[in-house]
Amino acid sequence: MVYPEVNTQSGVPIYQQVKNSYHRLAALGLIEPHEQLPSVRQLAMELGINPNTVQKAYRELEQEGLIYAVPGRGNFLSDSQRELDVEYEEIRRSFRSAIHIAWTAGIERTKLHELLDDCIDEPHLSDKDE
Fold it and tell me: Interior CA angle at 21 toward 59 and 27, to 5°?
């Protein structure tokens, strides 16, 4: 079983670190869809944190659709489509923010399309390493 990582010395709240870690583990495929997560008590003991902190992280992950709870059985990773939907929504938020900035600066729609196309056509960082 893969456990999330937390740093108690970090300025980031521990429940947020647990959430971020599960998002990373899911994105990297280290946790499979429908795989059971550690129980609240088990994870709290493993990480040396308060069970209420784990419960808060699990509750928010469930609200985000990354995990689902089965009463009496525990928490499980949702299928990858839900994670993809969350990622798409995050991308849409980023686009909306960029569009707002561009419109405030007076950039027209056609120029925005050109800028997006330029960004898509730029070589990826991983391509430079090859």
Answer: 100
Name the DSSP letter for residue 77: E
| Cβ within 8 Å of residue 31, ≥6 positions away | 2, 22, 25, 37, 77
Structure tokens at 130: 């090859």
CB 82 within 8 A of CB 26: no
For the segment 99-120, the average pLDDT, to the nearest whole number, is 90
Contact (CB, 8 A) for 36 and 76: yes
SS3 state of residue 81: helix
Angle at 125 between CA 97 and CA 94, to 5 degrees: 10
In this predicted structure, the answer to whether residue 101 has a pLDDT above a threshold of 80 is yes
Write the pLDDT tens digit of every residue in 10-48: 899 999 999 999 988 988 888 988 999 999 999 999 999
Average of per-residue pLDDT values in the chain: 87
- Give dist(CA 18, CA 7) in Å, integer: 10
- Specify the DSSP element, H or E, that contains 67: strand 67-70
